[in-house]
Amino acid sequence: MTSAALAGECYRMIDGAILHSLSLSVQVAAVSTVLIVIAGTAASYLLARRDFRGREVLDMLLTLPLVLPPTVTGYYLIVLFGRNGVIGKALYAWTGWTILFTWQAAVLASFVVALPLMIKTTRAAIESIDRTLLDASSTLGHSELWTACKVTLPLAKRGIIAGAVLSFARAMGEFGATLMVAGNIPGRTDTMPLAIYSAASSGDRSQANAMVLIFTVLSGFFLYAANRLSRRTA
Amino acid sequence: MGLSVDIRKVLSGFTLDIAWEIGDELAVLFGHSGAGKSLTLRMIAGLMRPDTGRISSGDRLLFDDSTGVDLPPQMRSLGYVFQDLALFPHMTVLQNILYGGHGIEQAERGERARTMIEWFRLAGLEHKYPGEISGGQKQRVAFARALIRRPTALLLDEPFSALDNPLRVEMRGLLRTVQKEFGIPVVLVTHDLTEAADLADRVIVCSGGRVVQAGTFEQLLARPGDPDVERLLAGCDHALSGR
Protein backbone atom coordinates (compact mmCIF):
# COMPACT_ATOMS: atom_id res chain seq x y z
CA MET A 1 0.00 0.00 0.00
CA THR A 2 1.45 3.41 -0.96
CA SER A 3 1.65 6.16 1.62
CA ALA A 4 -1.05 8.11 -0.22
CA ALA A 5 -3.34 5.11 -0.16
CA LEU A 6 -2.57 4.56 3.51
CA ALA A 7 -3.39 8.19 4.27
CA GLY A 8 -6.62 7.73 2.38
CA GLU A 9 -7.45 4.66 4.45
CA CYS A 10 -6.62 6.54 7.63
CA TYR A 11 -8.98 9.29 6.57
CA ARG A 12 -11.67 6.66 6.24
CA MET A 13 -11.02 5.73 9.85
CA ILE A 14 -12.88 8.76 11.03
CA ASP A 15 -15.87 7.64 9.03
CA GLY A 16 -18.80 7.64 11.47
CA ALA A 17 -20.02 4.16 10.55
CA ILE A 18 -16.62 2.62 11.14
CA LEU A 19 -16.22 4.40 14.46
CA HIS A 20 -19.63 3.20 15.50
CA SER A 21 -18.83 -0.42 14.60
CA LEU A 22 -15.51 -0.19 16.37
CA SER A 23 -16.91 1.26 19.58
CA LEU A 24 -19.81 -1.21 19.49
CA SER A 25 -17.38 -4.12 19.12
CA VAL A 26 -15.25 -2.90 22.04
CA GLN A 27 -18.38 -2.28 24.14
CA VAL A 28 -19.82 -5.73 23.41
CA ALA A 29 -16.48 -7.47 24.02
CA ALA A 30 -15.81 -5.52 27.24
CA VAL A 31 -19.26 -6.15 28.74
CA SER A 32 -19.23 -9.83 27.81
CA THR A 33 -15.67 -10.24 29.16
CA VAL A 34 -16.67 -8.77 32.53
CA LEU A 35 -19.59 -11.21 32.69
CA ILE A 36 -17.39 -14.07 31.49
CA VAL A 37 -14.74 -13.39 34.15
CA ILE A 38 -17.37 -13.42 36.92
CA ALA A 39 -19.40 -16.41 35.72
CA GLY A 40 -16.44 -18.28 34.24
CA THR A 41 -14.32 -18.03 37.39
CA ALA A 42 -17.20 -19.21 39.57
CA ALA A 43 -18.02 -22.09 37.20
CA SER A 44 -14.35 -23.07 36.89
CA TYR A 45 -13.98 -23.14 40.67
CA LEU A 46 -17.01 -25.41 41.04
CA LEU A 47 -15.81 -27.71 38.25
CA ALA A 48 -12.27 -27.86 39.63
CA ARG A 49 -12.89 -28.10 43.37
CA ARG A 50 -16.32 -29.57 43.97
CA ASP A 51 -17.27 -33.14 43.40
CA PHE A 52 -20.94 -33.28 42.43
CA ARG A 53 -23.19 -35.37 40.24
CA GLY A 54 -23.23 -34.20 36.65
CA ARG A 55 -20.00 -32.21 36.99
CA GLU A 56 -18.56 -33.41 33.71
CA VAL A 57 -21.93 -33.00 31.95
CA LEU A 58 -22.02 -29.37 33.13
CA ASP A 59 -18.47 -28.88 31.88
CA MET A 60 -19.44 -30.38 28.54
CA LEU A 61 -22.52 -28.14 28.19
CA LEU A 62 -20.61 -24.97 29.07
CA THR A 63 -17.71 -25.72 26.75
CA LEU A 64 -19.75 -27.16 23.87
CA PRO A 65 -19.82 -23.81 21.99
CA LEU A 66 -16.07 -24.23 21.54
CA VAL A 67 -16.65 -26.99 19.02
CA LEU A 68 -20.14 -26.19 17.72
CA PRO A 69 -20.44 -23.98 14.63
CA PRO A 70 -21.34 -20.49 15.94
CA THR A 71 -24.52 -20.62 13.85
CA VAL A 72 -25.65 -23.67 15.82
CA THR A 73 -24.93 -21.88 19.10
CA GLY A 74 -26.82 -18.87 17.72
CA TYR A 75 -29.74 -21.05 16.79
CA TYR A 76 -29.94 -22.44 20.34
CA LEU A 77 -29.89 -18.89 21.66
CA ILE A 78 -32.82 -17.98 19.39
CA VAL A 79 -34.70 -21.04 20.63
CA LEU A 80 -34.02 -20.06 24.25
CA PHE A 81 -34.21 -16.26 24.08
CA GLY A 82 -36.65 -15.65 21.20
CA ARG A 83 -40.00 -14.16 22.09
CA ASN A 84 -41.45 -17.67 22.16
CA GLY A 85 -38.36 -19.25 23.71
CA VAL A 86 -38.25 -20.68 27.22
CA ILE A 87 -36.34 -17.75 28.70
CA GLY A 88 -37.33 -15.11 26.12
CA LYS A 89 -41.05 -15.64 26.75
CA ALA A 90 -40.67 -15.15 30.51
CA LEU A 91 -38.43 -12.14 29.96
CA TYR A 92 -40.98 -10.58 27.57
CA ALA A 93 -43.88 -11.25 29.94
CA TRP A 94 -41.94 -9.65 32.77
CA THR A 95 -40.38 -6.64 31.07
CA GLY A 96 -42.11 -6.27 27.69
CA TRP A 97 -38.64 -6.38 26.16
CA THR A 98 -37.03 -8.92 23.92
CA ILE A 99 -33.27 -9.26 23.70
CA LEU A 100 -33.09 -10.38 20.05
CA PHE A 101 -31.70 -7.81 17.58
CA THR A 102 -30.29 -5.55 20.30
CA TRP A 103 -26.65 -4.92 21.22
CA GLN A 104 -27.29 -6.93 24.38
CA ALA A 105 -27.97 -9.93 22.12
CA ALA A 106 -24.48 -9.47 20.72
CA VAL A 107 -23.18 -9.53 24.31
CA LEU A 108 -25.15 -12.74 24.93
CA ALA A 109 -23.72 -14.39 21.81
CA SER A 110 -20.16 -13.34 22.66
CA PHE A 111 -20.64 -14.49 26.26
CA VAL A 112 -21.77 -17.99 25.31
CA VAL A 113 -19.20 -18.45 22.56
CA ALA A 114 -16.22 -17.10 24.51
CA LEU A 115 -17.06 -18.57 27.96
CA PRO A 116 -15.47 -21.98 27.16
CA LEU A 117 -12.06 -20.35 26.66
CA MET A 118 -12.30 -18.83 30.13
CA ILE A 119 -13.43 -22.09 31.71
CA LYS A 120 -10.75 -24.21 30.03
CA THR A 121 -7.85 -22.01 31.12
CA THR A 122 -9.16 -21.12 34.58
CA ARG A 123 -10.20 -24.66 35.49
CA ALA A 124 -6.75 -25.95 34.53
CA ALA A 125 -5.10 -23.17 36.57
CA ILE A 126 -7.22 -23.93 39.66
CA GLU A 127 -6.68 -27.68 39.37
CA SER A 128 -2.92 -27.20 39.20
CA ILE A 129 -2.80 -25.57 42.65
CA ASP A 130 -1.26 -27.84 45.28
CA ARG A 131 -4.10 -29.29 47.35
CA THR A 132 -1.93 -29.07 50.49
CA LEU A 133 -2.06 -25.26 50.33
CA LEU A 134 -5.84 -25.39 50.57
CA ASP A 135 -5.65 -27.91 53.41
CA ALA A 136 -3.17 -25.61 55.16
CA SER A 137 -5.58 -22.70 54.84
CA SER A 138 -8.41 -24.67 56.43
CA THR A 139 -6.24 -25.90 59.32
CA LEU A 140 -5.37 -22.23 59.91
CA GLY A 141 -9.04 -21.54 60.55
CA HIS A 142 -10.25 -20.24 57.19
CA SER A 143 -13.52 -21.09 55.45
CA GLU A 144 -13.65 -22.39 51.88
CA LEU A 145 -14.85 -19.01 50.58
CA TRP A 146 -11.99 -17.15 52.28
CA THR A 147 -9.49 -19.74 51.03
CA ALA A 148 -10.87 -19.34 47.50
CA CYS A 149 -10.47 -15.54 47.65
CA LYS A 150 -7.09 -15.42 49.38
CA VAL A 151 -5.30 -18.54 48.15
CA THR A 152 -6.97 -20.25 45.20
CA LEU A 153 -7.81 -17.27 43.00
CA PRO A 154 -4.59 -15.31 43.60
CA LEU A 155 -2.57 -18.43 42.72
CA ALA A 156 -4.71 -19.01 39.62
CA LYS A 157 -4.33 -15.35 38.61
CA ARG A 158 -2.28 -16.04 35.49
CA GLY A 159 -4.82 -18.53 34.18
CA ILE A 160 -7.68 -16.14 34.92
CA ILE A 161 -5.96 -13.27 33.09
CA ALA A 162 -5.10 -15.50 30.15
CA GLY A 163 -8.72 -16.71 30.03
CA ALA A 164 -10.04 -13.16 30.17
CA VAL A 165 -7.75 -12.03 27.33
CA LEU A 166 -8.63 -14.98 25.14
CA SER A 167 -12.33 -14.40 25.84
CA PHE A 168 -12.04 -10.72 24.99
CA ALA A 169 -10.26 -11.51 21.74
CA ARG A 170 -12.84 -14.17 20.88
CA ALA A 171 -15.70 -11.80 21.76
CA MET A 172 -14.22 -9.05 19.57
CA GLY A 173 -14.12 -11.45 16.65
CA GLU A 174 -17.53 -13.07 17.22
CA PHE A 175 -19.52 -13.28 14.00
CA GLY A 176 -21.80 -16.27 13.43
CA ALA A 177 -23.82 -16.43 16.64
CA THR A 178 -24.01 -12.62 16.76
CA LEU A 179 -25.45 -12.52 13.24
CA MET A 180 -28.10 -15.08 14.26
CA VAL A 181 -29.31 -13.34 17.45
CA ALA A 182 -28.44 -9.67 16.95
CA GLY A 183 -28.79 -9.42 13.19
CA ASN A 184 -26.69 -6.97 11.22
CA ILE A 185 -28.60 -3.75 11.70
CA PRO A 186 -26.55 -0.74 10.54
CA GLY A 187 -26.02 1.71 13.37
CA ARG A 188 -27.39 -0.72 15.97
CA THR A 189 -25.93 -4.20 15.97
CA ASP A 190 -23.29 -4.08 13.25
CA THR A 191 -20.15 -4.95 15.20
CA MET A 192 -16.84 -4.74 13.36
CA PRO A 193 -16.83 -8.32 11.98
CA LEU A 194 -20.41 -7.89 10.71
CA ALA A 195 -19.65 -4.49 9.20
CA ILE A 196 -16.60 -5.96 7.45
CA TYR A 197 -18.78 -8.74 6.05
CA SER A 198 -21.34 -6.17 4.79
CA ALA A 199 -18.67 -3.97 3.22
CA ALA A 200 -16.93 -6.90 1.55
CA SER A 201 -20.13 -8.47 0.25
CA SER A 202 -21.41 -5.15 -1.12
CA GLY A 203 -18.09 -4.57 -2.91
CA ASP A 204 -17.00 -1.60 -0.79
CA ARG A 205 -13.36 -2.67 -0.77
CA SER A 206 -12.00 0.58 0.56
CA GLN A 207 -14.30 0.51 3.61
CA ALA A 208 -13.49 -3.17 4.13
CA ASN A 209 -9.74 -2.46 3.85
CA ALA A 210 -9.90 0.30 6.45
CA MET A 211 -11.86 -1.81 8.90
CA VAL A 212 -9.69 -4.87 8.42
CA LEU A 213 -6.59 -2.77 9.00
CA ILE A 214 -7.96 -1.15 12.14
CA PHE A 215 -9.22 -4.47 13.47
CA THR A 216 -5.89 -6.19 12.88
CA VAL A 217 -3.85 -3.43 14.52
CA LEU A 218 -6.23 -3.29 17.48
CA SER A 219 -6.25 -7.08 17.99
CA GLY A 220 -2.45 -7.15 17.75
CA PHE A 221 -2.26 -4.41 20.36
CA PHE A 222 -4.59 -6.29 22.73
CA LEU A 223 -2.58 -9.49 22.42
CA TYR A 224 0.69 -7.64 22.98
CA ALA A 225 -0.73 -5.86 26.05
CA ALA A 226 -2.14 -9.11 27.39
CA ASN A 227 1.19 -10.89 27.03
CA ARG A 228 2.97 -8.05 28.83
CA LEU A 229 0.34 -8.09 31.56
CA SER A 230 0.49 -11.84 32.15
CA ARG A 231 4.30 -11.73 32.26
CA ARG A 232 4.19 -8.96 34.85
CA THR A 233 1.78 -10.88 37.06
CA ALA A 234 3.80 -14.10 36.83
CA MET B 1 -5.17 -30.36 77.72
CA GLY B 2 -4.28 -33.67 76.05
CA LEU B 3 -5.37 -35.33 72.86
CA SER B 4 -7.37 -38.52 72.59
CA VAL B 5 -7.85 -40.55 69.42
CA ASP B 6 -9.86 -43.71 68.85
CA ILE B 7 -10.72 -44.11 65.17
CA ARG B 8 -11.33 -46.62 62.42
CA LYS B 9 -11.24 -46.18 58.68
CA VAL B 10 -11.50 -48.82 55.97
CA LEU B 11 -9.80 -47.98 52.68
CA SER B 12 -9.25 -50.23 49.71
CA GLY B 13 -6.59 -52.72 50.84
CA PHE B 14 -5.91 -50.98 54.14
CA THR B 15 -7.69 -50.70 57.47
CA LEU B 16 -6.77 -48.10 60.04
CA ASP B 17 -7.74 -48.94 63.61
CA ILE B 18 -5.95 -46.66 66.01
CA ALA B 19 -6.45 -45.69 69.64
CA TRP B 20 -4.14 -43.64 71.84
CA GLU B 21 -4.21 -40.83 74.32
CA ILE B 22 -1.52 -38.33 75.21
CA GLY B 23 -1.12 -35.47 77.68
CA ASP B 24 0.65 -32.18 77.15
CA GLU B 25 3.76 -33.90 75.93
CA LEU B 26 5.68 -34.60 72.77
CA ALA B 27 4.45 -37.83 71.25
CA VAL B 28 6.05 -39.42 68.23
CA LEU B 29 3.95 -41.53 65.86
CA PHE B 30 6.65 -43.88 64.67
CA GLY B 31 6.53 -46.52 61.98
CA HIS B 32 7.47 -47.38 58.44
CA SER B 33 5.88 -45.68 55.44
CA GLY B 34 2.34 -46.95 54.91
CA ALA B 35 1.72 -47.62 58.61
CA GLY B 36 -1.11 -45.09 58.68
CA LYS B 37 0.69 -42.34 60.61
CA SER B 38 -0.01 -39.44 58.25
CA LEU B 39 -3.54 -40.73 57.69
CA THR B 40 -4.12 -40.55 61.46
CA LEU B 41 -2.83 -36.99 61.54
CA ARG B 42 -5.10 -35.93 58.65
CA MET B 43 -8.10 -37.40 60.47
CA ILE B 44 -7.24 -35.60 63.69
CA ALA B 45 -7.03 -32.34 61.74
CA GLY B 46 -10.37 -33.02 60.02
CA LEU B 47 -8.87 -33.23 56.52
CA MET B 48 -10.26 -36.75 56.20
CA ARG B 49 -13.24 -38.36 57.88
CA PRO B 50 -12.88 -41.57 59.91
CA ASP B 51 -15.66 -44.16 59.44
CA THR B 52 -16.22 -44.49 63.15
CA GLY B 53 -14.68 -43.40 66.43
CA ARG B 54 -13.98 -40.39 68.57
CA ILE B 55 -11.37 -37.63 68.63
CA SER B 56 -11.11 -35.08 71.41
CA SER B 57 -8.70 -32.29 72.18
CA GLY B 58 -8.75 -31.55 75.92
CA ASP B 59 -12.42 -31.55 76.85
CA ARG B 60 -13.45 -30.47 73.36
CA LEU B 61 -15.02 -33.10 71.13
CA LEU B 62 -13.76 -32.83 67.52
CA PHE B 63 -15.28 -35.96 66.06
CA ASP B 64 -17.74 -38.53 67.34
CA ASP B 65 -19.72 -40.62 64.88
CA SER B 66 -22.14 -41.82 67.55
CA THR B 67 -23.36 -38.26 68.22
CA GLY B 68 -22.73 -36.95 64.70
CA VAL B 69 -20.07 -34.43 65.78
CA ASP B 70 -17.60 -33.69 62.99
CA LEU B 71 -16.01 -30.26 63.25
CA PRO B 72 -14.53 -28.97 59.96
CA PRO B 73 -10.75 -28.38 60.01
CA GLN B 74 -11.16 -24.62 60.39
CA MET B 75 -13.08 -25.13 63.66
CA ARG B 76 -10.65 -27.56 65.30
CA SER B 77 -8.03 -25.04 66.50
CA LEU B 78 -5.16 -27.40 65.82
CA GLY B 79 -1.79 -26.34 64.48
CA TYR B 80 -0.60 -28.43 61.53
CA VAL B 81 2.83 -28.37 59.91
CA PHE B 82 2.82 -30.22 56.58
CA GLN B 83 5.62 -32.33 55.19
CA ASP B 84 6.26 -29.81 52.41
CA LEU B 85 5.36 -26.96 54.83
CA ALA B 86 2.68 -25.56 52.46
CA LEU B 87 3.77 -21.93 52.79
CA PHE B 88 1.72 -19.70 50.52
CA PRO B 89 4.11 -18.72 47.72
CA HIS B 90 2.27 -15.48 46.91
CA MET B 91 2.47 -14.16 50.47
CA THR B 92 5.48 -12.73 52.28
CA VAL B 93 6.80 -14.27 55.50
CA LEU B 94 4.81 -11.74 57.53
CA GLN B 95 1.65 -12.29 55.50
CA ASN B 96 2.00 -16.06 55.90
CA ILE B 97 2.26 -15.69 59.67
CA LEU B 98 -0.61 -13.19 59.87
CA TYR B 99 -2.76 -15.52 57.76
CA GLY B 100 -2.50 -18.04 60.61
CA GLY B 101 -3.94 -15.51 63.04
CA HIS B 102 -7.53 -15.92 61.95
CA GLY B 103 -10.12 -14.73 64.46
CA ILE B 104 -7.65 -12.61 66.45
CA GLU B 105 -8.38 -8.90 66.70
CA GLN B 106 -6.15 -6.96 64.27
CA ALA B 107 -3.94 -5.06 66.74
CA GLU B 108 -3.44 -8.19 68.83
CA ARG B 109 -2.67 -10.18 65.67
CA GLY B 110 0.08 -7.74 64.68
CA GLU B 111 1.51 -7.93 68.19
CA ARG B 112 1.50 -11.72 68.16
CA ALA B 113 3.09 -11.79 64.70
CA ARG B 114 5.93 -9.60 66.03
CA THR B 115 6.38 -11.96 68.97
CA MET B 116 6.44 -14.98 66.63
CA ILE B 117 8.99 -13.30 64.35
CA GLU B 118 11.22 -12.63 67.32
CA TRP B 119 10.66 -16.05 68.82
CA PHE B 120 11.43 -17.91 65.60
CA ARG B 121 14.33 -15.61 64.67
CA LEU B 122 12.72 -14.32 61.48
CA ALA B 123 13.52 -10.62 61.93
CA GLY B 124 14.62 -9.03 58.67
CA LEU B 125 12.80 -11.64 56.57
CA GLU B 126 9.28 -10.25 57.06
CA HIS B 127 8.96 -8.97 53.51
CA LYS B 128 10.64 -11.86 51.74
CA TYR B 129 8.67 -14.51 49.87
CA PRO B 130 9.02 -18.23 50.71
CA GLY B 131 10.97 -18.73 47.49
CA GLU B 132 13.61 -16.29 48.72
CA ILE B 133 14.46 -17.87 52.09
CA SER B 134 16.37 -21.00 53.18
CA GLY B 135 14.92 -24.39 54.15
CA GLY B 136 15.44 -23.81 57.88
CA GLN B 137 13.84 -20.37 57.70
CA LYS B 138 10.85 -21.85 55.87
CA GLN B 139 10.48 -24.39 58.69
CA ARG B 140 10.43 -21.62 61.25
CA VAL B 141 7.82 -19.65 59.26
CA ALA B 142 5.62 -22.76 59.10
CA PHE B 143 5.91 -23.16 62.88
CA ALA B 144 5.18 -19.48 63.50
CA ARG B 145 2.14 -19.60 61.20
CA ALA B 146 0.78 -22.73 62.89
CA LEU B 147 1.31 -21.38 66.41
CA ILE B 148 0.22 -17.73 66.19
CA ARG B 149 -3.36 -18.75 66.95
CA ARG B 150 -2.20 -20.65 70.06
CA PRO B 151 -3.71 -23.95 68.96
CA THR B 152 -4.77 -26.60 71.45
CA ALA B 153 -2.40 -29.14 69.90
CA LEU B 154 0.34 -29.17 67.27
CA LEU B 155 0.47 -31.84 64.56
CA LEU B 156 3.65 -32.32 62.53
CA ASP B 157 3.77 -34.53 59.45
CA GLU B 158 7.47 -35.32 58.94
CA PRO B 159 8.37 -31.66 58.52
CA PHE B 160 12.12 -32.26 58.92
CA SER B 161 12.45 -35.01 56.33
CA ALA B 162 13.87 -32.73 53.62
CA LEU B 163 16.48 -31.06 55.84
CA ASP B 164 20.16 -31.92 56.10
CA ASN B 165 21.41 -33.32 59.39
CA PRO B 166 22.71 -30.22 61.25
CA LEU B 167 19.49 -28.38 60.45
CA ARG B 168 17.42 -31.34 61.63
CA VAL B 169 19.19 -31.29 64.98
CA GLU B 170 18.57 -27.56 65.27
CA MET B 171 14.88 -27.96 64.41
CA ARG B 172 14.46 -30.75 66.94
CA GLY B 173 15.85 -28.42 69.62
CA LEU B 174 13.38 -25.78 68.51
CA LEU B 175 10.51 -28.25 68.63
CA ARG B 176 11.36 -29.22 72.20
CA THR B 177 11.38 -25.56 73.21
CA VAL B 178 8.06 -24.98 71.43
CA GLN B 179 6.44 -27.86 73.30
CA LYS B 180 7.68 -26.59 76.66
CA GLU B 181 6.82 -22.95 75.95
CA PHE B 182 3.31 -23.59 74.62
CA GLY B 183 2.54 -26.51 76.96
CA ILE B 184 0.34 -28.30 74.42
CA PRO B 185 0.28 -31.84 73.07
CA VAL B 186 2.61 -32.16 70.10
CA VAL B 187 2.30 -35.13 67.74
CA LEU B 188 5.22 -35.71 65.40
CA VAL B 189 4.95 -38.26 62.62
CA THR B 190 8.28 -39.76 61.64
CA HIS B 191 9.91 -42.91 60.35
CA ASP B 192 13.29 -41.67 61.54
CA LEU B 193 14.40 -43.66 64.57
CA THR B 194 16.94 -41.04 65.70
CA GLU B 195 14.24 -38.39 65.64
CA ALA B 196 11.93 -40.58 67.71
CA ALA B 197 14.69 -41.42 70.17
CA ASP B 198 15.78 -37.81 70.46
CA LEU B 199 12.43 -36.13 70.86
CA ALA B 200 9.73 -38.40 72.18
CA ASP B 201 8.28 -38.18 75.66
CA ARG B 202 6.15 -41.02 74.38
CA VAL B 203 6.55 -43.17 71.31
CA ILE B 204 3.46 -44.64 69.64
CA VAL B 205 4.60 -47.37 67.30
CA CYS B 206 2.30 -47.95 64.31
CA SER B 207 2.34 -50.82 61.90
CA GLY B 208 -0.22 -51.92 59.31
CA GLY B 209 -2.79 -49.39 60.49
CA ARG B 210 -2.61 -50.40 64.16
CA VAL B 211 -0.80 -49.21 67.28
CA VAL B 212 1.53 -52.08 68.16
CA GLN B 213 3.06 -50.53 71.26
CA ALA B 214 3.24 -47.23 73.13
CA GLY B 215 5.49 -45.95 75.89
CA THR B 216 8.72 -44.10 76.50
CA PHE B 217 11.57 -44.95 74.17
CA GLU B 218 13.41 -46.68 77.03
CA GLN B 219 10.36 -48.84 77.84
CA LEU B 220 10.06 -49.88 74.22
CA LEU B 221 13.73 -50.66 74.04
CA ALA B 222 13.71 -52.69 77.25
CA ARG B 223 10.61 -54.70 76.42
CA PRO B 224 9.61 -54.68 72.78
CA GLY B 225 6.11 -56.07 72.98
CA ASP B 226 5.87 -57.23 69.42
CA PRO B 227 8.13 -58.63 66.67
CA ASP B 228 7.11 -55.60 64.59
CA VAL B 229 8.46 -53.28 67.28
CA GLU B 230 11.65 -55.28 67.50
CA ARG B 231 12.10 -54.97 63.79
CA LEU B 232 11.38 -51.24 63.86
CA LEU B 233 13.79 -50.68 66.71
CA ALA B 234 16.60 -52.55 64.99
CA GLY B 235 19.54 -50.17 64.77
CA CYS B 236 18.51 -48.28 67.89
CA ASP B 237 22.04 -48.35 69.32
CA HIS B 238 23.01 -46.04 66.53
CA ALA B 239 19.95 -43.91 67.19
CA LEU B 240 20.70 -43.66 70.89
CA SER B 241 24.29 -42.70 70.32
CA GLY B 242 22.96 -39.48 68.84
CA ARG B 243 20.95 -38.53 71.93
Strands, helices and their partners?
The complex is a heterodimer of chains A (234) and B (243).
Chain A: H1 3-13, H2 16-49, H3 55-63, H4 70-81, H5 86-95, H6 103-127, H7 131-139, H8 144-155, H9 157-172, H10 176-182, H11 192-201, H12 205-232
Chain B: E1 3-11, E2 14-22, E3 26-30, H1 37-45, E4 52-57, E5 60-64, E6 69-70, E7 78-81, H2 93-99, H3 106-119, H4 135-147, E8 153-157, H5 165-182, E9 186-190, H6 193-199, E10 202-207, E11 210-215, H7 217-222, H8 227-233, H9 236-241
Helix pairs in contact in B: 2-4, 3-4
Description:
The complex is a heterodimer of chains A (234) and B (243). With 234 residues, chain A is mostly helical. Chain A has one domain (3-232): MetI-like (MetI-like fold), CATH 1.10.3720. Chain A is 78% helix and 0% strand. Chain A is built from 12 helices and no strands. Chain A has helices spanning 3-13, 16-49, 55-63, 70-81, 86-95, 103-127, 131-139, 144-155, 157-172, 176-182, 192-201, 205-232. In chain A, helix 4 (70-81) packs across helix 6 and helix 9 runs antiparallel to helix 12. The longest helix of chain A is centred in the first third of the chain and has 34 residues, at 16-49. Chain B is of the alpha/beta class and 243 residues long. Chain B has a domain at 92-150. Chain B is 36% helix and 26% strand. Chain B is built from 9 helices and 11 strands. Chain B has a 6-stranded mixed β-sheet, with helices on both faces. In chain B, strands 2-1-4-5-6 form a 5-stranded antiparallel β-sheet, covered by helices on one side. In chain B, helix 2 packs parallel to helix 4 (135-147). Chain B is globular, with a radius of gyration of 18 Å. The mean pLDDT of chain B is 91. The A-B interface holds A 130, 132-133, 135-143, 150-151, 154-155 and B 45-47, 72-80, 82, 84, 86, 88-90, 99-100, 102-103, 145-146, 149.
